[in-house]
Write a structure and sequence with these properties.
single chain; alpha/beta; Rossmann fold; seven-stranded parallel beta sheet; globular; binds nicotinamide-adenine-dinucleotide
């Protein structure tokens, strides 16, 4: 309990799936959480349920970032953690991907993560540091055929996180930056993908343990536990690392 007590932590894309699980786990461990999402209805409802603050945000819109940091500074006076989690994953391979979709995916993942990190560092520097966690994917490590733009974006997040970690360490900012690389985790994003790619709702037929064993599909808490660890002081010696959460999928 209280592993991140009183830390002020932003989670983007927190109305659903992994972001929602992160927000719940961080709140349960004593953090003051600011949830952001493009979906204000779901986001507001979840935030009031778990006692967090909600801010409507499209992470690919640059002007939302100074606005968000201003709100955090005014309401809490500091920022200790940022989880850049918001994401989209349209299914399209190299032959199918349109320029519009390519730009949307890169803008959400890469622009959003870039602006998030840049504005968080500005605020964290005024208060003795913090921890940034960027949600990448195993797609950054192996590439996934039906996810061309998504694989490119997640690869960019992986390298961007390492560049930020090096800069912060060399400049003694006391800010850590790590990336998380989940395999398949049971969220609306993956349920949709499985329906599209396999053709039926196979998650509806299986309990979580069966899904893990039979198909290698994890639960949102498997990732949320890592997020709590990386934002807590328990991970003070970890920066520039890539945390793979895939039940061994990428080593088999
Ligand atoms: N579920 C998995 O298996 C898995 C695996 C690897 C990586 N990831 C990554 O984890 C993150 C969360 O995925 P999820 O599975 O929970 O998906 P999800 O679709 O359940 O949730 C994504 C959330 O992001 C929000 N969002 C989308 N675009 C946004 C934008 N421009 N600005 C703000 N919010 C926006 C959505 O409204 C939604 O609430 C994503 O970055 C995803 O790529 C997921």
């Amino acid at each position: 309990m209280n592993r991140v007590e009183n830390k002020v932590i932003i989670v983007t894309g927190a109305a659903s799936g992994l972001g929602l699980a992160d927000a719940k786990a961080l709140t349960a461990e004593g953090a003051k959480v600011i949830m952001t999402d493009i979906d204000s209805e779901k986001g507001n409802a979840s935030a009031s349920e778990i006692g967090a603050t909600f801010f409507t945000q499209d992470v690919s819109n640059e002007s939302t970032w100074p606005e968000l940091m201003g709100l955090v500074q005014n309401k809490f006076g500091r920022l200790d953690g940022l989880i850049n989690n918001a994401g989209i994953a349209p299914i399209a391979n190299i032959e199918e991907t349109t320029t519009k979709s390519w730009r949307e995916v890169l803008s959400t993942h890469l622009d959003g993560t870039f602006w998030g990190c840049q504005s968080a560092i500005k605020l964290m520097k005024t208060n003795n540091g913090g921890s940034i966690v960027n949600m990448s994917s195993t797609a950054a490590l192996i590439g996934i055929g039906p996810y061309l733009a998504y694989s490119a974006a997640k690869g960019g997040i992986r390298s961007m996180s390492k560049s930020i970690a090096i800069h912060c360490r060399q400049n003694k900012l006391n800010i850590r930056c790590n990336s998380i690389h989940p395999g398949s985790i049971n969220t609306p994003m993956v349920q949709h993908a499985l329906k599209e790619l396999v053709g039926k709702d196979i998650m509806a037929e299986k309990d979580p343990e069966q899904s893990r064993i039979a198909m290698g599909i994890g639960e949102p808490d498997d990732v949320a536990h890592m997020v709590v660890y990386l934002t807590s002081d328990e991970s003070k010696h970890i920066t520039g690392a890539e945390m793979v959460i895939d039940n061994g999928d990428t080593v088999i």
